[in-house]
Amino acid sequence: MTIRSTGGRVAAYAWLVFAAFNLVDVLFGVTGDAKLSANTFGLVAVLLLGCGVAYAVGLRPAIIGDDDGIALRNPLRDVRVPWAAVRGIEGGHVLTVTFTGADGTETVSRAWVHQTSPRAQAKADARARREQTGGQAHGADLRGRTPTRYAAQQLEEMRDRLRPKTRSGVPDKAAAAEAEAGDAHGTVTWSIPALASLVVPAVALIVIVVVSSVS
């Protein structure tokens, strides 16, 4: 199960195409003469910085659920949580995962993608109430079925199906599951590629501006 922002990816790819065309034009003079100057290198740095933003904000973010656990890929950080370490998954305005951290304390991480505005959440609540009042949906969830909440429900179902069973009719399996649950913890790490895609062109742009101002 992988959830990404369709709008974010479309916008990111649109920028990458725009940037690629302009880079070729600036460096090889497709629509005019190519001039290698400080302004040219500055424009290249700006285009590359925009590509870094497109990658970090548009292409990278994702919510991934697999047999091993949940992964939240946010613009600059990665969160990886095995099912045994997950304590709760909520789908409010953002998808939130509560899990056991590396030091054993409770940690909360929020997903960048699939955010629901308070207005959309309120509309979903009102729609669910109307459907229940009119008898259109028996036992409907009064909190509505926004994309964020639906994603949380899917992940909860995966968690119930895939997490180790600490209560089992086989004592050895139950003991092994309890040991695994006790040792399991989630990790939060910085994404080196995402940081590099932003820092390198930003530093290059600063250097170009400084050199141009003193020369």
UniProtKB/TrEMBL annotation:
Disordered, as annotated region: 119-143, 161-183
Transmembrane segments: 12-30, 36-57, 194-214
Xref: InterPro entries: CFP-6_PH (IPR019692)
Segments of skewed composition (Basic and acidic residues): 122-132
Annotated keywords: Membrane, Transmembrane, Transmembrane helix
Low molecular weight protein antigen 6 PH domain span: 61-130
Protein's name according to its UniProt entry: PH domain-containing protein
